[in-house]
Amino acid sequence: MKKENQKKDKSDPQEEEERIKQRMKTMLKKSHLSEGEETEDLEESLNILKRLYRFIQLFCEGHNRELQNHLREQKTTTGAPIQKDYDFIKKTSFYFYTLIKSVNRDSLDVATQMLDFLIESVQGPCLGNQKAQVEAKMINTCMDFLTFFHDDYYYRKRGFFTDKDRKEADNATTKAMKLLNSLIEANDNEDIIKEMCNTIDFKFLARKVSDEYVNLVTSLKLKPDEMSPEDVTNRLTGDSFTQEVLESFDVYILMATLADRDDRVREALKAFMSEEHEQPIETKALNFMRMNTGNVEIYFEGRLLKIYFPIYPICRNLTEDSQKKLI
After folding, report:
1. What is this structure's pTM?
2. How far apart are alpha carbons 244 and 174 in whole angstroms?
3. Per-residue pLDDT at 25
């Protein structure tokens, strides 16, 4: 019986992906329809999927470790694995991978809800679910998803024409970045760190940060080429950190966290931030992020962890006395 289970587990990833593709093929094929019974059936199916994933997401609220693990592996009352368990973590990772290949305005809500569930399933952190998602190639999938919406053509190609539609797409990619950060939360597993470092395109991330930095500086009525990161920081207002800017901080924090754990990433980040870097805007953007990012060390489950966070502009208005009282 043990050998049969091992054999089954070994073939699961490829076979499961094929089954998922077949199951979702009809739904994805219909996603551009705009009328008729098929469209109504599709909308109903999407709504059911969204409600189901919201339901199992609630199992994980409050970082409930027991239920987080239960969604990956079900056991009997004696603690023994049951024969026909269902790994919601890996299967959802496969579902998400399949869905985003043809994601559009109609199916985006389901993709976003899947991301919400996957994020909640690992936060706390839940090391077993982090490992399961990495094994299911969620790092690759998130990077693919992040590159889908990099210019106007690709928004329009997938049916995102209005500003509202595009904001929802941007919100989904923000959650994909949040998931990447959650996968290494309080986790020093060398295999996961190595997989993350080998998979992520750091040049793409640096460009993503620099693009939003240009938008931020322009919104302050300043010229990105002429202003230093220090000058930009001094001109920030209370509402300067929009959702898009905070997403860029998530990108930088991911890079900084990996740089703390991997020499290659540390050297790459140092090169990006050097004055000799061939893209001066990227250098300014990353140095701006560094200047406006703080960190704190916390003692968690026997380990000392460094946690990064953005320093909001309003924090710079606190007096020294107020800061001491807060501490």
Report:
1. 0.77
2. 8
3. 54
